[in-house]
């Protein structure tokens, strides 16, 4: 049964599985089979995935789908999405199609600055620290040249370093607050390497130039990137919002109200923004970017005014409906998984090898589209109608329905409300 282990990481993959099965599953062979069935028969491909992380046992599949018909700044895109939640890809596709005939999505990168900090403690006089920093600043940058040389050749690098006094919030706490331009790289390694070099130079020089020592606490990039911003927008005449039995004026009014509610009500804002992240994370993941970094940064941005609020905004002015969002996105299209994971390479290929700036715009559009689709459903038919139809397939698969059973039941629910119990009832009825 469950046990502690030492040297686990040194075991082979098969030995790790054996250990797991012996100590957690009472030597159950079906567990071994469940893990091994996801191994890729192409050994090289499997090894590639094994080496992405540590203690790999198998692969964990996520569906990889596409949402076509996105028109962004007059260019057509088919957007790759990796996500487990039903309805998300369908919703993105639906929103893309809706806006395709209404001018498409307009986007703009506002800024691309990334941030990193060296956090340190200093008990001496602030004036001495300030003049030491002014003196040493150019050396901080020069000593990092071996790291920044290539990035500079391409037009990026360190933008600035500032000394920040945080002693009113925490005794003796100061920062070197650095800004960077990392071009098409997400830049985490670049920024962290620069910061560690700053810390080294700073501490060494302080030893001879300051009376009191500098104690470096840590050097790390920030995932809060409010100056790495992108804007996405859709807009059309209110009358052009009409669709089927939806009255465009009522729709626009309710839609704007729904956004305003998310602007002032944090409980709603969190769910509203979660829907946006359905689109954003799916594209971020499919393109090999760090969705946890994006999540952390985006939600912090949603609280920038002191209260957690909607990331999107909407208005009707002079008969024109406008729906937009500005969000921070630190993304890369080179480095990391982008040249390693075959499906990431494919996804970037599908997007026509975007620059990081272009990817920021595509990802922002996926978020805006997702929010549009969610609010359209919520303020008209309700979310469950579409959602449960998509969920129907999951329930059918759970019950291992045959293709014949699936067809009959899907037909039945074309005119009936889907609920878990109603589907189970139909399956039982069919199976006698
Ligand atoms: C579900 O994953 C996302 C929604 O809840 C978003 C929203 O409520 O706006 C539908």
TrEMBL record:
Pathway: Metabolic intermediate metabolism; (R)-mevalonate degradation; (S)-3-hydroxy-3-methylglutaryl-CoA from (R)-mevalonate: step 1/1. Gene3D superfamilies: 1.10.8.660, 3-hydroxy-3-methylglutaryl-coenzyme A Reductase, Chain A, domain 2. GO terms for biological process: coenzyme A metabolic process. The keyword NAD applies. It is an enzyme of class 1 (oxidoreductase). GO terms for molecular function: hydroxymethylglutaryl-CoA reductase (NADH) activity; hydroxymethylglutaryl-CoA reductase (NADPH) activity. This is 3-hydroxy-3-methylglutaryl coenzyme A reductase. It comes from Mesoflavibacter zeaxanthinifaciens subsp. sabulilitoris. Its EC number is 1.1.1.88. It catalyses: (R)-mevalonate + 2 NAD(+) + CoA = (3S)-3-hydroxy-3-methylglutaryl-CoA + 2 NADH + 2 H(+). It comes from the Bacteria. Signal peptide: none annotated. Belongs to the HMG-CoA reductase family. Keywords: NAD, Oxidoreductase. NCBIfam families: HMG_CoA_R_NAD.
